[in-house]
């Protein structure tokens, strides 16, 4: 059974977790399928991505059968294997979406727990349904978040809120998640809102959008000097080039730009 669907329409990649009957819980096959989907999208000409999960929940975290099999293994050396640049396979579930060069918008509903939360954190933007609930669930099972969460969570949340979520594993509702920075916005129809935003982004200069994502990644992790240099380097690749001139012409003529 397929775990993930990838479809393309109007320069937008739609990536859907398709294990809705299991709350899109993450087993090994689904983890591999999510990473493969991210790699496929990264190699495509998509200008924006919408990431979602079918059914009542976006993703409820690790599938307990798979968790049990992993917990029974005596050799855990695989955890330390850097199979995907600086990450292992599990961490790449979230980080692959940061490696995708265009914006990724997650539309989430229901349970967004554990590995599912970390997957959503890999997106640039998260639009949540009013029923969405979020949990750093790992402590419930005597574990810590290990799917890229500790790279991404500190960029969004203040330390005391992050510590409370991590130490207690208690779910929080969408309003608390919004206040703590886990959610970008709340919408009664997050899929429609996500596609509308993806369409808006896909209509912008593709080169400038990709440059902006690269620049934000640098700004979040590197020094002032490196950020200033990156600003200049990225701008130098854009200013006066054909794509930017088309944006100027379209604005002056009151039309949508045409990016060949």
Short summary:
The protein is an alpha/beta fold and 260 residues long. It has 2 domains: 4-201, 2-enoyl-CoA Hydratase, Chain A, domain 1 (Alpha-Beta Complex); 205-253, Lyase 2-enoyl-coa Hydratase, Chain  A, domain 2. Helix content is 47%, strand content 14%.
Describe this structure in words.
The protein has 260 residues and is α/β, with parallel strands linked by helices. It has two domains: 4-201, 2-enoyl-CoA Hydratase, Chain A, domain 1, CATH 3.90.226.10; 205-253, Lyase 2-enoyl-coa Hydratase, Chain  A, domain 2 (Orthogonal Bundle). It is built from eleven helices and nine strands. The chain has helices spanning 28-43, 64-72, 89-99, 115-121, 149-156, 159-168, 174-180, 190-202, 206-219, 224-238, 242-253; strands at 4-9, 12-17, 48-53, 104-108, 111-113, 125-128, 133-135, 172-173, 185-186. The strands form two sheets. It has a six-stranded mixed β-sheet with strand order 1-2-3-4-6-9, with helices on both faces. A three-stranded mixed β-sheet has the order 5-7-8. A hairpin with a 2-residue loop joins β1 (4-9) and β2 (12-17). The chain is globular, with a radius of gyration of 19 Å. The model has no long low-confidence stretch (mean pLDDT 95).
């Amino acid at each position: 059974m397929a775990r993930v669907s990838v479809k393309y329409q109007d320069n937008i990649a739609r990536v859907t977790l398709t294990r809705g009957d299991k709350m899109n819980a993450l087993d090994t096959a689904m983890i591999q399928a999510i990473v493969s989907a991210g790699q496929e999208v990264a190699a495509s000409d998509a200008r924006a991505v919408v990431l979602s999960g079918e059914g009542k929940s976006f993703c409820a975290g690790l599938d307990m059968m798979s968790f049990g099999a992993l917990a029974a293994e005596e050799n855990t050396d695989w955890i330390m294997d850097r199979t995907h640049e600086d990450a292992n396979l599990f961490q790449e579930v979230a980080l692959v979406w940061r490696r995708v060069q265009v914006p990724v918008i997650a539309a989430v509903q229901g349970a967004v727990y554990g590995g599912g939360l970390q997957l959503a954190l890999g997106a640039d933007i998260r639009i949540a349904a009013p029923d969405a609930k979020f949990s750093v669930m790992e402590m419930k099972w005597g574990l810590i978040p290990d799917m890229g969460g500790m790279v991404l969570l500190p960029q969004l949340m203040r330390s005391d809120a992050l510590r409370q979520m991590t130490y207690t594993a208690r779910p929080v509702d969408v309003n608390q998640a919004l206040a703590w920075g886990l959610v970008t916005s709340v919408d009664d129809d997050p899929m429609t809102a996500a596609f509308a935003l993806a369409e808006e982004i896909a209509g912008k200069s593709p080169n400038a959008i990709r440059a902006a994502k690269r620049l934000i990644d640098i700004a979040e992790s590197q020094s002032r000097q490196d950020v200033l240099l990156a600003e200049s380097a990225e701008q130098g690749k854009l200013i006066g080039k054909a794509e930017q001139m088309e944006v100027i012409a379209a604005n002056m003529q009151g039309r949508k730009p045409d990016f060949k």
